[in-house]
Design goal:
By secondary structure, the protein is of the alpha/beta class. Helices cover 30% and strands 22% of the residues. The relative contact order is 0.14.
């Protein structure tokens, strides 16, 4: 091979570079981990072919940049790769039987954990199991059932280990569930989850690394080349580093180190001290994006301006006092770190923008994109305009709406659910908006998200069709806008010489893929840094849980 040859050459029907105004190309060459050259002529780069060049002749194919999932939870997916697969259950007896099967091969006293990517409305009983029911599966093991990132259900063994009784004080920003009889039902929400989760031992390092290998390659198999993992503990980041060193990661990872459960700036300062050693050890495959806060709860506890449809005395939970959150966010930005804050309900969005406005006033000159709103689920016109005026980027997650619309209508009613994630409104205001899945609450997948953004389809039909966007706009949210959110627009998001060779190959043009076929469309090839990434999860992908 000469010094001027290509390592990889793809000839295709169309290479969409996503450079504004540039016509589709026909050939793309890669050297090392970078795009080397493009040509509108199918044979225009043949002079770069040597005996060592890997050539893909794909005359009917469409090439796009690899996608970003800008708000997801790879760590949860990795844990779920080896946890009890309760997302396969159709009813509570099957749910319990899966746990019972795991208990039969697990030494007594060891923790049993479940996958997190399930919804109770998919069970015939349309509810969560209780501690008493989990006790039927096993009373000789502590059991941790997770649903998404805001809800746990545990059995009586786990409650005893944690010392949770009828008299246990409810942590601020959390809920300890009780049944109709007033007794503990095993449910723990938001800041109450730590009462039990702090007791769960870390897995043997080899197990989560293998889980990260499986899960990250499954993301890549759907067309995703970079994930922004929005809840990574320091221990999780150590595992990500070990997985990266072992060559196990199939996608690039941008980690938000979690401050969830913290209630003071002093706690956040301690977290930042821990993060200092990672400041200079980043590489293109793994880096710390910033710090993650949460200002309100999830589906059951998002803070709203108006009471819930199911309980007119309740309007969700604010996890932080605004003054305390200002101090905590300032602690982060004064160390040169970025902040992403979960804000789901409209009251949470308004309160977060109040907090961010104060931080910006007290810290003039912060770099653009330092403060980000995660979700902005129920952001109305006034708050969207405020966010744009303040220069606050937002991440939205259409797959979350798709999978949870029925659950959310029970809490908020159909009118508010139809207003969630108003992509059209954000774009029309010129917002810096990017898109993701929020797996395990929503299913990940490049075209699954594009399909949802363009149709507003959910499990109970189309919701808020006026908020739909075009195919080209949806691509932008996952590529050029996503790279900008990560501060990497000079490296990724478009296919131009010198940028990282993160690209996907499709056997048909997704822009012309009819109806629901787009939802399930997967690439034939995903390249990250010029290397082909394949999935070991062909038969039972984590993202295919519904």
């Amino acid at each position: 091979m000469t010094d001027h040859g290509a390592d990889l050459l793809i000839r295709a029907n169309a290479v969409h570079t996503l450079v504004p105004g540039q016509a589709p190309q026909r050939a793309l060459a890669v050297r090392g981990d970078r795009v080397l050259a493009l040509s509108p002529d199918l044979d225009g780069l043949d002079h770069l072919v040597t005996a060592a060049t890997e050539v893909h002749d794909l005359p009917g194919a469409t090439v796009l940049p690899a996608f970003d999932d800008t708000h997801t939870h790879l760590i949860f997916a990795a844990l779920g790769a080896q946890d009890v697969p309760v997302h396969q259950a159709r009813n509570i007896p099957e749910f319990l039987d899966l746990i019972r099967q795991r208990a039969a091969v697990t030494p007594e006293g060891e923790w049993i954990r479940t996958t997190t990517n399930w919804q109770e409305l998919n069970l015939a009983e349309r509810r969560m199991p209780t501690a008493a029911e989990l006790d039927q599966a096993t009373d000789r093991h502590p059991v941790l059932v997770k649903r998404g990132g805001h809800n746990d259900v545990v059995n009586s063994y786990a409650l005893r280990l944690a010392g949770i009784t009828e008299e246990t004080p409810v942590p601020p920003g959390g809920t300890i569930g009780r049944g109709a009889d007033g007794k503990l039902d095993g449910r723990l929400i938001d800041n109450a989850m730590g009462l039990v989760e702090r007791l769960v031992p870390a897995q043997d390092r080899a197990q989560p690394i293998e889980g990260l290998r499986l899960a990250s390659h499954d993301y890549a198999a759907t067309g995703i080349g970079t994930v922004r993992d929005c809840m990574v503990s320091p221990a999780d980041y150590a595992l990500l580093r070990a997985a990266r060193e072992a060559g196990a990661l199939g996608v690039r990872v941008r980690a938000l180190i979690s401050a969830l459960g913290m209630t003071s700036a002093a706690q956040v300062e301690d977290l930042l001290d821990t993060m200092e050693e990672w400041r200079y050890g980043a590489d293109p495959g793994l880096s710390v994006w910033g710090v993650k806060f949460g200002i309100d709860g999830g589906l059951e506890a998002g803070a709203t301006e108006e009471p819930y449809a199911c309980d007119h005395s309740y309007s969700g939970t604010l996890i932080w006092e605004p003054d305390a959150l200002v101090e905590a966010v300032e602690a982060v930005v004064r160390r040169g770190r970025r902040v992403g804050t979960h804000a789901y309900g409209d009251r949470a969005v308004r309160t977060l923008l109040d907090v961010y406005e104060r931080v910006l006033e007290r810290n003039p000159g912060l770099p653009a994109g330092t403060l980000v709103m995660e979700h902005g689920g129920l952001a109305g016109p006034e708050q969207r305009a405020r966010a744009v005026a303040l220069g606050i980027p937002v991440t939205i997650q259409q797959p979350l709406l798709h999978d949870t619309a029925e659950v959310e209508e029970g809490f908020w009613g159909p009118e508010r659910v139809a207003r969630l994630f108003p992509a059209r409104g954000w774009i029309d205001l010129g917002a810096q908006v990017s898109a993701g899945s929020d797996f395990p609450v929503g299913q990940f997948g490049a075209m699954r998200s594009v399909w949802g953004l363009t149709t507003r389809q959910t499990v109970i039909g189309v919701k808020g069709p006026e908020h739909a966007i075009t195919y080209d706009e949806a691509l932008t949210l996952h590529t050029t806008n996503a790279a900008r959110l990560c501060g990497e627009e000079h490296l990724r998001g478009t296919l131009t010489p010198g940028r990282l060779a993160d690209l996907t190959v499709w056997d048909q043009d997704p822009a012309h893929c009819p109806g629901d076929a787009l939802r399930d469309l997967k690439p034939t090839h995903t390249f990250v840094g010029g290397l082909l990434v394949t999935s070991p999860f062909k038969e039972a992908p984590l993202s295919g849980h519904q």
